[in-house]
Design a protein that fits this description.
Strands 3-2-1-4-7-9-8-10-11 form a 9-stranded mixed β-sheet. It has a two-stranded antiparallel sheet with strand order 5-6. α2 packs parallel to α9. By secondary structure, it is of the alpha/beta class.
């Protein structure tokens, strides 16, 4: 069989493993429909170097590779083909077994394993890798508290709660998500593009969160925010978003001029098994995003069309919001106004379970800290 056939079979096995063991491989598995939409928006090219510092089983890296092969395959010269095999993808995962799955996944899709493009068992946040990348695509692990992780000689993972003291970070915090956002910014080359999945707390949290958001809006062109529905991830109860931004050279004037927001959350209901997210659910967002033609974007929301999910906000508007809160929504929740608009009982039950499990996880964390 050809390498891509074997690779597709392996990728299918990883997906099935994630579905059947949500407490195991599932936590490293991002819905492939979401990954494809993000990659379609960022549009990696044959000359890019793509990094995922929390690569899991390699979904983002493979999607970027597939995008280049499907869009540029016939035009690739020998140097570009060599680059795709060795140098195009880079990344790492803190869990050695997961990194091993990723390395095999890439190898079966034609990426050279020597030198290995994936750092195994390395805490990405501990230090800057020394290299910079033109594209970063990532879904960092959920969980607010950071911990330094060390792989012992026996292969066990030991963690110690701490804040990362990085001179290249804007602020010191124990919030893992804010640290990953700062880390990703440091990884980008000038004019590098990023698509990163972040939970809601990154958008509204005060203190360090406000510091990170102000600096990101100032130093980067933060141009797009996709509000994701619940029910997409194996980490239950998580409300997440995709933030798209471009790195820029230093200047006094802020680089962000307009933030475009697409609300895929309000009045949308998905579950992992009975109603999973499909590529068709993201087609309107990709069309609104206008990959490669962002200058011709047009909102679907207006005073007359209040159901529109695509809307823009000027930089000055964002600064006036309390703590530069980017958790922006405007659509009315129909289930609060009309009982007939409630989702199917199965979806409601799943959402309740997710919320309870998320609450239980938070209380468990508090309990551990009090011991």
């Amino acid at each position: 069989m050809e390498a891509d056939v074997k690779g597709d079979i392996y990728e299918g096995l990883l997906a099935r493993s994630a579905e059947e063991s949500p407490k195991g491989a599932g936590q490293y598995f991002t819905p492939r429909a979401l990954i494809k939409a993000i990659v379609d928006c960022v549009q990696p090219s044959p000359d890019d170097i793509v990094c995922d510092p929390a690569c899991g089983t390699g979904g983002f890296l493979l999607a970027a590779l597939d995008y280049v092969l499907s869009h540029f395959g016939k035009e690739l010269d020998p140097d570009q083909k060599r680059h795709l095999r060795n140098g195009f993808v880079n990344g790492g995962d803190i869990v050695p077994n997961t990194a091993r799955l990723c390395i095999m996944n890439l190898f079966l899709h034609g990426v050279d394993a020597d030198p290995c493009p994936i750092a195994s068992g390395v805490d990405s946040l501990a230090a800057h890798p020394g290299d910079h990348y033109s594209v970063v695509l990532t879904n960092p692990p959920f969980g607010k508290k950071s911990s330094i992780a060390i792989v012992t000689e026996e292969g066990d993972l030991e963690k110690e709660d701490t804040a990362y003291e990085r001179p290249d970070f804007w602020t010191t915090t124990k919030n893992k998500q804010l640290n990953f956002l700062q880390h990703v910014k440091t990884l980008l080359k000038i004019n590098g593009r990023c698509g990163i999945v972040v939970p809601d707390n990154v958008l509204f949290e005060g203190g360090a969160g406000e510091t990170v958001r102000r600096n990101l809006l100032q130093q980067c062109d933060v141009h797009t925010l996709l509000r994701l529905p619940t029910g997409l991830f194996y980490a239950q109860g998580v409300k997440a978003n995709v933030l798209f931004f471009d790195a820029k050279p230093a200047r006094e004037q802020a680089w962000t001029s307009t933030l475009w927001v697409y609300d895929l959350r309000t009045n949308m209901h998905f579950t992992l098994k009975t109603n999973p997210l499909r590529p068709s659910d993201l087609e309107e967002f990709v069309e609104c995003y206008k990959p490669g033609k962002r200058h011709i974007r047009k909102p679907t929301w207006s005073e007359e069309t209040t159901e529109g999910r695509w809307r823009c906000f000027d930089y000055e508007e964002l600064l006036k919001r309390d703590k530069v809160n980017l958790d922006i929504f405007w659509l009315k929740d129909k289930s609060l106004e009309d009982s007939e608009s409630l989702p199917h009982p199965d979806a409601l039950a799943d959402e309740i379970v997710q919320d309870l499990e998320a609450a239980l996880e938070q209380f468990s964390g508090i309990s551990r800290e009090l011991r």
